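User: Just a sanity check before I run the rest of the batch. Below are the structure tokens for the first item. I only need the designed sequence back.
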């Protein structure tokens, strides 16, 4: 088993990328009182994959002893037609831990565990540039009763998606009708759970991840967070994006030894706005230490306590949810985080 955040020693170049899903009860501090699900790996980003590929996945739970991880798995990309429309939304696993029951034994701990997964890329039916999707299923720990006033009972499902090229001698993906189309597979971190959180917010980087040493000013293109206002799936929006936050080298799991209370270090904040974003960001790497650094990009979606939600999910006809029938929602904030490592080398 490798060190999951040390990406040396693999057959191909890899980069550490992480998705996080946070839940914060109404009235609690997002920075210090959230429960976290972390899902990360040294990913073969932008590499050509064939046959079996070994990937060590690091799972972390923070302030989250009420939940367990039930399975971690990789998914085949969803097929699409020449217009770019997805033709099948079924999930097809191409590698899995199998069923597991892993969690933290006590409250207010940060627990972590590595899991080795063999990914069979030959199960992907087409060869092309496409996302490699990593997902974790979670559930309530044994003996814990559902209590949505404190976020217990949602089906938290953090997911990470990175760009790769599948090459197994299969038919090519359909050629796109747009002659100017450039194959794109953005890096995505999302947390999919009970309505209305599904598809209310995603954290996306459409630019390429930095795989070479950085110096001077580094421009990140197309940082993107969005909610139902952009997708126009639900009107009015019940869980709008209320914060987009970018920082460098934060430490959210720090505990003050004198008080035993959370004392997060927010790092070097680069952007903090109360809305969705779709913009570039310039980072002055001369203000950072040489060597490994981490970019942290979080999207928060807040729902007011007492909100009455639509009875059904508009894009899933017939599917009801925990608050169907006019049950008031207790409120809270759901967050999606994308984090990745990059390396700086400026003259000293």
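Assistant: Here's the designed sequence for the first item:
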């Amino acid at each position: 088993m490798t060190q999951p955040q040390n990406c040396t020693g693999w057959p191909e170049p890899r980069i550490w990328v992480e998705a996080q899903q946070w839940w914060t009860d109404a009235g609690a501090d997002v920075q210090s009182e959230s429960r976290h699900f972390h899902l990360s790996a040294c990913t073969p980003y932008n590499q050509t994959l064939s046959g079996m590929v070994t990937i060590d996945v690091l799972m972390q739970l923070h302030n989250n002893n009420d939940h367990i991880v039930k399975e971690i798995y990789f998914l085949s990309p969803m097929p699409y037609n020449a217009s770019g429309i997805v033709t099948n939304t079924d999930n097809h696993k191409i590698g899995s831990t199998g069923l597991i029951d892993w969690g933290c034994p006590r409250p207010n701990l940060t627990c972590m565990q590595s899991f080795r997964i063999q990914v069979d890329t030959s199960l992907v039916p087409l060869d092309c540039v496409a996302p490699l999707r990593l997902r974790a299923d979670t559930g309530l720990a044994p003996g814990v009763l559902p209590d949505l006033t404190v976020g217990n009972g949602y089906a938290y499902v953090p997911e990470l998606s990175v760009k790769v090229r599948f090459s197994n001698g299969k038919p090519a993906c359909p050629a796109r009708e747009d002659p100017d189309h450039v194959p794109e597979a953005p890096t995505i971190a999302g947390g999919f759970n009970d309505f209305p959180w599904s598809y209310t917010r995603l954290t996306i980087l459409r630019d390429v991840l930095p795989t070479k040493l950085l110096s001077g000013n580094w421009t990140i293109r197309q940082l993107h967070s969005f909610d139902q206002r952009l997708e126009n799936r639900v009107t009015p929006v019940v869980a709008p994006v209320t914060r987009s936050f970018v920082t460098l080298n934060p430490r959210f799991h720090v505990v003050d030894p004198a008080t035993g209370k959370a004392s997060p270090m927010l790092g070097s904040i680069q952007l903090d706005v109360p809305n969705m974003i779709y913009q570039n960001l310039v980072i002055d790497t001369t203000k950072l230490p040489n060597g490994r650094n981490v970019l942290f990009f979080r999207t928060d979606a807040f729902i007011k306590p007492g909100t009455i939600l639509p009875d059904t999910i508009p894009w899933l006809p017939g599917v009801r949810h925990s608050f169907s029938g006019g049950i008031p929602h207790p409120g809270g904030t759901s967050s999606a985080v994308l984090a990745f490592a990059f390396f700086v080398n400026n003259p000293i």
